[in-house]
Design goal:
Immunoglobulin-like
């Protein structure tokens, strides 16, 4: 009978000990009692994922202005987001921009940004990171109206490339 009481008492003490709170220390930077002051180093890190949003209209009519915008730019400190006119329908035998009808009629047009021509291969918008919500920027692309065009429904395409690059010095 005495053995049962002893076993019950041991189990009760074990249960009480397991209910007590225990202070845990990290494996790194554990201090032991020393006669001199001691110090340890803790590394602090923070990661910001790169990202940005570029908005380009799906359709543009000649004679109108289309806004291309970049927002929320968070890229490496030595990088910027760029938007480039990388390809377009071109008139036969020229480097000019064109639209055409199913019947084969063609008209050339130009794209301007703040008075300067935007040609195939040109980068017309760059935006770097900024504090807060990130860098923002936009470009108003003016699609010219031709002097003369035969009646018809004209269409063509322009292709934009978006990416990151090291800013020009």
């Amino acid at each position: 009978m005495n053995m049962k009481r002893t076993l019950t008492a041991i189990l009760a003490l074990a249960l009480a000990a397991s209910a007590m709170s225990v202070t845990a220390f990290a494996a790194d930077n554990t201090f032991t009692q020393a006669t001199d002051p001691d110090s340890k180093v803790t590394n602090v890190t923070y990661t910001v994922a790169p990202g940005y949003t570029v908005t380009i209209p799906a359709d543009v009519a000649l004679g109108t202005t289309a806004e291309v915008s970049v927002s929320g730019v968070k890229v490496a400190a030595n990088k910027e987001v760029f938007v480039q006119l990388s390809a377009a329908s071109s008139a036969r035998g020229t480097d000019g921009l064109k639209v055409s009808t199913d019947e084969g009629a063609e008209i050339e047009y130009t794209i301007n940004n703040n008075g300067g021509a935007v040609t195939v291969g040109s980068i017309f918008l760059t935006v770097q990171s900024a504090a807060g919500a990130g860098g923002i920027g936009s470009a108003d692309l003016e699609f010219s109206t031709p002097d003369f065009a035969a009646a018809g429904d004209y269409s063509g395409t322009v292709t934009f490339t978006v990416g990151t690059q090291t800013p020009a010095a």
